[in-house]
Automatic annotation (TrEMBL):
Keyword terms of this UniProt record: Pyridoxal phosphate
InterPro entries given in the database record: Cys/Met-Metab_PyrdxlP-dep_enz (IPR000277), Cys_met_metab_PP (IPR054542), PyrdxlP-dep_Trfase (IPR015424), PyrdxlP-dep_Trfase_major (IPR015421), PyrdxlP-dep_Trfase_small (IPR015422)
PROSITE patterns the record matches: CYS_MET_METAB_PP
UniProt cross-references to SUPFAM superfamilies, sorted A to Z: PLP-dependent transferases
UniProt KW Iron-sulfur keyword: no
Protein family per UniProt: Belongs to the trans-sulfuration enzymes family.
Protein name: Cystathionine gamma-synthase family protein
Cofactor dependency: pyridoxal 5'-phosphate
């Protein structure tokens, strides 16, 4: 049997991503014929010769480019290892990027992407709301190092984006950072407006800012930012890609030249993902399409039930949000609404929301999202509690908002659980 582990087509037919997730990037005959990749639990790798050791260090440090991917060489697991490389190749296929990098967490991936291109005195233009950890990174952690942040709350309004761009005048903007759909409100950002903003900033400063997109909520199945002007995509791979609530990981996908700068940060800071977690991600990629499609269908049914409930003021699900040109942008850039969304009670604040959450049976009261089990949380007191209340309120993360991540249970059972708990509100 011939080796075909990097084959992307058969004859004139281009193979689908879900097909490639079962085998791409792994040659069984390099691992004693094992159909599934072993977990390579080693810290270091042997060189066949001293000359190989010298060349491999030149490759891993970026001093030289390997002749091809097979000849890049393995050095030390802080830099690279087989489980990492297999999954990185598959992520690049899914997202349509030239390459991918994996990290020990989503926040490690985001931080490395920022530090690779931003310098003291620079300004990051970003959408709001952001995941609470990202917001804290921008306004708390990085601020003492001289990095500034300017946010815009309406990524569908040309006027709002232009006003935010104007506020960045006087300093360099290396990055436009957006999260779309936003966690937890499912607010969208128009990719076309971001490209126009990058054009405007480039005219002003002479260099083009990179458009960095957190694609955790819909990617890589329901949204493809690299096809719409984005330069870099970042992920919490913990969520849908991992999909089983049993690992923590992050990812960055994009062009090879941009990834080279980010990879240097990863190696220097030791942000590498370990072999076992990498292996688990490879396992999860095989069922990613099935899990996301099933969960998205269930979430749509549950969101529509909530929309008609008399105690619910608003359901923040991409299929149901009707503000301005939201639906136009949604249909242009997204294939489905995903399975994580939020809803806001008409009258209940934190106390009422807590009563509701405490009375649920099937939903697990926990943060995170994208697992096989359904999760529910109160963002204002948990994931976004580190964000100033005035910012939370301005972007809609109020005390009466609850976030749902729908899993693989029967949706009618989940609706029955929600209905019973609603009686306590």
């Amino acid at each position: 049997m011939k080796s075909s582990y990097r084959q992307r087509s058969i004859g004139n037919r281009k193979l689908s991503p879900e097909t490639l997730m079962t085998s791409y990037g792994y040659d069984p005959f390099l691992s004693e014929g094992s159909v599934k990749p072993p977990v390579f639990l080693t810290s270091t790798f042997a060189f066949r010769s001293a000359e190989d050791g010298k060349e491999f260090f030149n490759y891993v440090s970026g001093r030289k480019a390997p002749p091809n991917a097979e000849d890049a060489g393995l050095v030390y697991s802080r830099f690279n290892h087989p489980n990492l490389q297999i999954v990185e190749e598959r992520l690049a296929v899914l997202e349509g990027g030239e390459g991918a990098l994996m990290f020990a967490s989503g926040m490690a991936a985001i931080t490395a992407a920022i530090l690779a291109f931003a310098r003291p005195g620079d300004t990051i233009l970003h959408s709001q709301p952001l995941y609470g950890g990202t917001e804290t990174l921008f306004v708390g952690t990085l601020a003492p190092f001289g990095l500034k942040a300017v946010g815009f709350t309406d990524g569908l309004s040309a006027g709002a984006v232009e006003a935010a761009v104007a506020k960045t005048a006087g300093g360099k903007v290396p990055i436009i950072y957006i999260e779309t759909p936003a966690n937890p409100t499912c607010g969208l950002v128009d990719f076309d407006l971001m490209v126009k903003a990058a054009d405007e900033i480039e005219k002003r400063q002479g260099s083009r800012p990179l458009i960095v997109v957190d694609n955790t909520m819909l990617g890589p199945i329901f949204q493809a930012p690299l096809q719409h002007g984005a330069d870099i995509v970042v992920y919490s791979l913990t969520k849908y890609v991992g999909g089983h609530s049993d690992l923590v990981a992050g990812g960055v996908i994009g062009r090879a030249k941009d990834l080279a700068a980010i990879k240097k940060i990863r190696s220097a800071f030791g942000m590498q993902l370990d072999p076992h977690s990498s292996w688990m991600l490879g396992r999860s990629l095989e069922t990613l399409h099935l899990r996301m499609e099933r969960a998205s269908t269930s979430a749509s049914k549950i969101a529509r039930w909530l929309k008609d409930h008399p105690k619910v003021a608003e359901v923040h699900h991409p299929e149901l949000i009707a503000r301005g040109n939201y639906q136009t942008v949604y249909r242009k850039f997204c294939k489905a609404g995903g399975s994580t969304f939020a809803f806001t009670f008409k009258e209940a604040g934190e106390a009422g929301a807590f009563r509701f959450l405490n009375d649920l049976h099937l939903f697990t009261l926990a943060v995170s999202l994208g697992g096989t089990e359904s999760l529910i949380s109160h963002p204002a007191s948990t994931t976004h509690s580190g964000v100033a209340k005035e910012i939370r309120d301005s972007v809609g993360v109020t005390d009466g908002l609850v976030r749902i991540s729908v899993g693989l249970e029967n949706p009618d059972d989940l609706i029955a659980d929600l209905a019973e708990a609603m009686e306590k509100v």
